[in-house]
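Entry 14. Structure prediction run on the chain below.
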Amino acid sequence: MNKQLIGPTPAGHALDRLPGLIRTAFLVTLLTAAALQAAAAAQASGISRIVAVGDVHGAYKELVTILKTAGLVDDALAWSGGTAHLISVGDLLDRGDDSRQVMDLMMRLTSEASAAGGAVHVLLGNHEIMNMTGDLRYVSPGEFASYADLEDAAVRSAALARYTAAATDADFGRSYPAGFFGHRAAFTEDGPYGRWLLTLPSIARLNDTVFVHGGLAAWMGKYSIDDVNKRINSELRNFLAARQILVEAGQFAIESSEEELLQAGRDFLAGEVAETGTETDRALKTLGLLDQARLFSSEAPHWYRGLVACNTIAELGELEAVLDKFGADRVVVGHTPVTGGHITRRLDGRVIMIDTAISPAYEGGQPAALVLEGDGMQALYATDGRLTGLRDAVPRIFSTASGMDRAAVENFLRTAEVVSSVDLPDGVTEPRKLTLRQGDITLNAVFKYADIDNNAKARRKKYRTTDSYKFDVAAYRLDRLLDLDMVPVTVLRTVNDREGAVALWIPDSMTRKEIKEQNVDASPQCSISKQQELMYAFDYLISNDDRNLSNMLFHKGDWQLLLIDHSLAFRNRTKWPQYYTEPEFTMPAALAERLAALSETGLAGELGTLLHPSQIRFLLKRRDELLEKHGP
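Output returned:
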């Protein structure tokens, strides 16, 4: 049976900008009834009780435990939540053996809750989409085995015949374990689970709260919730339809992976496959264009991690714009496990993180749910069954310090025992690397003690030649005042009878210079350009004369930009630092608000022991210039 590719997509879609695709008869302009059902977001108000659960990943027993704790199911696992609404933010699948049971339970509870006047909402996570598109890296052997009853022996035999032409039967069994082909059949658009998943939205709004698996990227602020849901559903259906055409034509098989299909599409667009104008050509073209679509983008609602991983100031303004568009006050997300398995909030409470890693595949997690009743919002943990307050997220530059918050790290750097002190090879002021220990915590730090030309004569020279450890501490304190979280914790401390600045050493990081020299393929989940614009603003604010590739530090994994070495800053001038041509940028509104709140009295209280009053006055002059020329 041939499949038609399904449209349309909202205006401004990435595919709309690529000529030819949506004008061809290969795409129709009407969504099917099922697609419309999926696109119709779960939007409801006046709900008295909402219970939200994070990523389950096949942890059936743990899911049942938290549902019982929340009073949503009884001992027979029948719905007992009355008019309450249960919402799953996705990732029911992968990593655990019992994901099929999890889906069966959620499907049944959906019907039972509706009959009782309540509701069950399930959102698409990235792992639901991966199972449908053929990215099966995280499917456990037990998960495959659970679909053995759906496996067609003839399909398996045909696949074996294809496989043994190039490999052995034993290799086939390892690559395609029992139940593999039943799993693939189950997740097609005509399969029992694929059909259900295609009715699920990516985003929902209940009362004044938005729920999504990964996060809300800035582009979503141009659309309604319905439009975003239609877009993801449409792209997913187009992928599945294109794959089915190619499978029926014999160009691909049911076991073909998502990456194999997308690569074939890329090759077609690159002209590596001769175009014949056939239906299979149109399918390949569609796959090539879908490779650039939101469905597979790091900014898709099921993939985006910016809200939980990236700089607060860079994300907050964009999030507020999306929430305003969606008519909500906050967003609840899963996707990224939270430290210690505790439900956590960040971005001034606008983001609630509920992936508490309940699957035994993770360490340190626990079954938990977020409960919203009236104006209240609390965490419920299965361990004690009590409602408790939410935890505040630890800024990520401190998360490498044993999960300590800012105040704890500052105290550690001031008071921990100095176990060792060694010279660092870089730095003209002879910095030293310290190893600090307190209790069972051991961390490294950098100690700088140079204080050159920091006197009355230097003031007359507008501090043009001053190089002082005090400016490193002042830069950190200003970063703290602004909640910028780009300068590692830095404190005053005396080491071996010399006062200096002790700054937290960030492990697992690389300088911009090292990244370039080693040609590292950094794939940031946090926008480098947005982070650099914050750096521009900060460097001008502090009149920093020493920004270079060696003191732009990136934390591996999330590639967040950290700023170090500020001893050549706080000059008495208003022009841009010597190495800068004034860049074109507009600062986020959140940063502008924090800058506007700075006062001479407040800065004197924070920085008065580190800077001369004239340096503080020039800092405020530069602040005014920033707001005038680069404000929102």
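The longest strand covers residues 441-448.
Filed with the rest of this week's runs.
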